[in-house]
Amino acid sequence: MNCLVCRKPFAVPWSPATLLKYDWVCPDCDAMFTPLEPGCPRCGHPTEDGATCDDCVRWLGLGLDLTVRSLFAYDEAGANWLHRYKFGGDVALANQMRSVLRKTREPGAVYVPIPLSEERLRTRRFNQAEVLAQMIGPTKQVLVKTEVSSQRELGKEERRHRTNPFTVQQLPRCGKIVLVDDVYTTGTTLHQAALTLRQAGVEQVSAVCLFRTLNKSKMRPI
């Protein structure tokens, strides 16, 4: 059996399920991510004594309160994985995250992926957030995104103050919407999407994000 991530051969314990499962991940690759310990109650960023982080304090000051469940730190391993998945188009890698994403599922929630603009979707050929959302629970396309400059070209302050690119396409009948995205950097994308949903009448909005950048991280931007 070859590992889905590193492609190296490794032994797996045999059972009838072995015949049906093809996306095995070796122990080294399975342990390469850094789970976020309890930190900021709103975004998961590590903080002392579980206090609200500075970024979320700023969002609260703008009247935007969103709880985001972030699963892993965006460190070297996270960056390498995300670039291979997102920009390399290796969609099968998402299967490695299936079980951890599934554990975030909430009863009665509909999972709404952060959309790509039509132009970006045409270029990338898949929405990385949609694939992740489908691994959690029932998914619906609710938001439409207008093309804006890539966030990779923007500084942190420019990201925070960009124009809201989201509009509501069609609201589902549900008690709660959970936004899904691949990485939380400044929080602008998720807060703008949540604000758009609330202005459309959605009362309960939260979010799940696979990776959370750390403020002192020296990683390359997404």
From TrEMBL:
The keyword Cell membrane does not apply. Keywords: Metal-binding. It comes from the Bacteria. Residues 167-215 form the Phosphoribosyltransferase domain. Belongs to the ComF/GntX family. This is ComF family protein. The lineage of its organism: Bacteria, Bacillati, Bacillota, Bacilli, Bacillales.
